[in-house]
Amino acid sequence: MKPLKRVALIGNHLPRRCGIATFTHDLHRSISTARPCLETCVVVMNDPGATYDYPAAVRFQIPEETIVGYANAADFLNTERFDVVCLQHEYGIFGDEAGGHIVELLNRLSMPIVTTLHTVLPAPTPVQHKVMGKIIARSTTLVVMAEKGRELLRSVHDVTPQKIEVIPHGIPDFPFLEAHHAKAKFGFSGKTVILTFGLLSPSKGIETVIDAMPGIVECCPNAVYVILGATHPNLIRHQGEAYREGLITRVWELGMQNHVVFFNQFVDQATLLDFISMCDVYATPYLNEAQMTSGTLAYSFGLGKAVVSTPYWHARELLDSGRGILVPFGDAKAIGLEIAALLTNDVRRHAMRKRAYAASRSMTWTQTAKRYLAAFEASRETSRIGNRAPAAQGDLREGGTFPELRTGHFLSMCDSTGLLQHAVHSIPNRAHGYCVDDNARALLLSSALATFGEARLPEPVTARFAAFIQHAWNPDTHRFRNFMSYDRQWLEAQGSEDSHGRTLWALGECARNDTDPSRRRWAAALFKTALPAVEHFRSPRSWAFTLLGLDAYCVVVGDLTASRMRELLADRLVSAFHATETEDWHWFEDVLAYDNARLSQALLRTGAALKRSPLIKVGLTSLRWLMELQTTGHGYFRPVGTESFGVVRKAPRAFDQQPVEAGAAISACIAAWRVNDSSQWTTGAKRAFDWFLGSNDLQTSLVDPDTGSCLDGLHPDRPNQNRGAESMLSYLLGLAEIRQFARAGMATSPAELAHKLALSA
Q: Which of 76, 492, 509, 596 has the smallest number of CB atoms closer than 10 Å to its CB?
């Protein structure tokens, strides 16, 4: 693997005033210092109406409420070919409910994502849980700063432990100093100083220490409480300085105006470190237990200060084993007693300081940078393994080689009647006979090979598939039969709606692409004859398969009936989607079943042909949702398991996994790319194809590249060793399409690209 060369951070950045801005600035600087040859940059979020004079390291700015900005940022990062993106996630800095806009950016990225979660909620709202789930799914590695974060990711979001790294909040590497020099600098000589710093807001609990000051002063008359920090910008926007003024009023009411000092300023790091050096006790009286990270606590702890804190999560871990003191939330009496006890006991306070300083040496920004760089390298390796393909490394859009398309096993499954359904291992199983479903797929393969420039099937073999379909037509019922026994006896008068639709799909493709003119005319005629029955169908998949056939048929035949049917079926799919869609269920039915992505593909192909953007919008929305469900936390494609079929509105189960889902996902993602030029679709297509080659839950290749056979799927503990027709054709059709796309799919003219963008607007 090539060395790490380019890293981009996403978050806030100084001079914007917030904790994430400071953290991103410090992390970026420490990484750049640790590895000077590394090219780095920062993509920043801008709050509404604000502009900042950013340093040169900030290469791209996103207005947080404008979703187009997120898409443009992703395009920038992909175009610049960064090796890794490191996202700083905090609630409130990204647009949309629960910060959902950031998912649009992540979905479009083509490189591994390392996400630092500054907050992990123990009881997120449904929307927060959904958005966080999407962020987790798109991240290769998740970084938290406390063990509590790891615990919550496991219990609340079911994240695998291998995906989580605990890297403590970084701190400056500052010497262990006594306080008197800094006190003299700020005019506090002869005082014992208690300090709290950070952006002022009600959640900081400053009132608790103010209320404790009379008791502290009684024990330590020279005590001064220094409150350093500007009021939080969000609070200023909504309330002005009312909160600060209320604190000042409280100080005067208690008669503590000579013992409480406010510094209303946002200071640089050098000044901040001097203020921390000055204090004898640092206080973090925060009111919210669910605080995963406190930069102010980390910095004070790292400078070897005696800390008195409420027991929020970060403090509980950092101050354990005598490294600090914890007091109950909002308890002014308790915090006053503990601070006074420390201020009047130099030996105890100094011992606590030394324990804190010694424990913090692994938290310096130098050490933190090393751990982040290791996480970046590991995420690249995980992503490489998770997306590996023996002959198809790299981004799909960069071309590359894929396995040769071999049809040896396919031809062994054919006889004088047509294509047999099943196999025992690789041996054709005559006991189950034939079906029109598989022979229609075989005719689709014949058309695809001719269209995509692959070696064609022998003419007599293609003729047998056509003959099977012709024989399957039942003029008495105006439907196709499906199942035939090995002795050529039909087992039903008519097949399923889905098998009828799939056969129309094959006929449409044959009418457009077959190499034999006579067979093209035959296919068009039978398509026209069999089409009317679909008007009464109720299966969304039958509509989708028919729409895919109409996409080809309407290119070569000017048929008003076909055009009307095309509009009708597309509208039915859209109506089904809108009737079923909810906040967390973006699908056409209440259940997930088989060949799911074909529904989205049908709307994308139809919308592009008819220039109907609403069809494209539903196609993209549904496919994006489906592909997110079918992507594991490790970045593998995981098809909707058969155990999920019929389960109403539940996340899909993992097994059994079938090749038909991977084949459908490949086609649908390529169709999506043709109307929405985003790397998420090319990445999705390649991820689905790599499932065949071993990037799956069992790390097992399903295909024999020498024969073109494909295993029938994956059980939880083993692959299914049989190699039937549906599985084989799903692989061969997917391989043919992805090889053709890798060769020519990116050769899009400016006019075509403009057309695509107009359709997806």
A: 492
